[in-house]
Amino acid sequence: MAIRQTPDGPIWRKRTTPQSLALWFGWLLLVLLFVLAWEAMTRNQIWAFVWDAPEQAADLFGRMVPPRWSYMDQLWVPLWDTINIATLGTLLAIVLAVPVAFLAARNTTPSPLLVRPIAIFIIVGSRSVNALIWALLLVAILGPGLLAGIIAIALRSIGFIGKLLYEAIEEIDPRQVEAIRATGAGPAQVLDFGIVPQIMPAFAGITLFRWDINIRESTVLGLVGAGGIGLQLKSSVDSLAWPQVTLIFIAILATVILSEWVSARVRAALI
Amino acid sequence: MSGPAVLPDPASEGARRYPRHWRRPPLISDGRLRWAIYAGVLLYLVVGIGAVEVNWGRLSEGWERGLRFLGGFVEPDFISRWDDIRAGLIESLTMTLTATVVGVLISIPVGIGAARNIAPSPVYLACRALIALSRSLQEIIVAILFVAMVGFGPLAGFLTLAFATIGFLAKLLAEDIEDIDAAQVEAIRATGAGWWQVLDYGIRSQVTPRLIGLSLYRLDINFRESAVIGIVGAGGVGATLNTALDRYEYDSAAAILILIIAIVLVTEYVSGWVRARVQ
């Protein structure tokens, strides 16, 4: 806060002159950066394609409706595959992420200097790569199919579940652990009776949340060949069969809404 | 924790046998429902895993490729495709920045319109509908549509990311505006301020720190997404990565992945630092 003296008396201002200069300079820098980025981005842009975009959009819309409802017969199996990818991928992720979370939490890690950084590295590495990129890699390695999708979903989910779970483990009440230990419990019993009951609600919530996200992500994994309804989406887009694309969008939207409803119900029942 | 443990009653000691061990109460108290759920889960696992077709021949072939890919991480090749990688990264970064700036500029009015406490009902409904539309469509699906409309290249990616930013930021901004301290708005209004002045002095000052934090967070997300939407032709480093994998150049692909992870870590760290200072 600053007060500027003028001949008419003091005027209240929120910032001192250097502060407002710095702020102004920051905004100038942002605008400059934006203009430079925009220039670099649109250097190779063919604007003729952009100017007729409204016509293209109208044309596209005209071709997308009405959806080809009869194509739904061929979508049930891919939809089932999509749900399988998400569910089995989440289960695999739980199996892998729970030990990582215990190794990463400060209060349960066996060695804060040696093991914890490795566990944190696994979590960060998994989190910073999108499931679609994991799928791209795994399809190149394992070949196209459900398995690549399941492992891709699992690899991406390890970081998510691991991070939230280890934060939950770090926030537990140490007195309960102390009480269990005071009864003469061994380390495994302390884990089972002292820590696990405290993190179960968080664990259930995190898992359901991730399952929900995984359903969304698994609908597009097929674009790179990792199974599910995305395969149909890709072949329909590539063959310009827009009425089928519309139906697939509707199917994806319905699946996502259904999964949100299921996870909300299960969450209400469990937590 | 309540178990079936009962305090021993000396009078009837010996007449009845009391449980000597405490047992944890089950999660689902109804026994039949519990076993039905267990059986259902088991059945699903059998059916679900059975549906996964594993081609073992292909897998053993892939094993060797997997090792080569891991080898690529040990010796990433930044040089032989550097021009493509550089072009892809510049596209991704410029796309991220412009999309975040434009997305934030559009989300502010949409967010104000979607706040129940300041917007009239028709505006509220229109803005909420736009937010719901943006949130329910995945980035990659939006990217397919924009590529079909404006052609291949970073402009389609820019439009996709800007559109996705609106759904994210406008929703959170609207919720933040709905949560503000009404007394401050009341005080500004009591001085005789008009609608714009109330917005400027009563609301803006309360939501700005969080808006800055959310914008930086979205910058972070947009970069991650920009690495993906290239797969469907919307520009950025994702296209470069896809090409490298199609050519089986695992060392170049590893170099791209390392760069993506490094940039994500740097942006996450920087945006976390700025957010901690602003909020």
From TrEMBL, chain A:
CDD domains: TM_PBP2 (cd06261)
Gene3D superfamilies reported for this sequence: MetI-like
Bilayer-spanning residue ranges: 21-41, 83-105, 241-262
SUPFAM superfamilies: MetI-like (SSF161098)
Keyword list, A-Z: Cell membrane, Membrane, Transmembrane, Transmembrane helix, Transport
Bilayer topology annotation: Multi-pass membrane protein
GO MF term set: ABC-type phosphonate transporter activity
Subcellular localization: Cell membrane
Domain ABC transmembrane type-1 intervals: 79-263
InterPro entries attached to this UniProt entry: MetI-like, MetI-like_sf, PhnE/PtxC
One annotated Gene Ontology cellular component of this protein: plasma membrane
Family: Belongs to the binding-protein-dependent transport system permease family.
Name recorded for this polypeptide: Phosphonate ABC transporter, permease protein PhnE
The species this protein was found in: Thiocapsa imhoffii
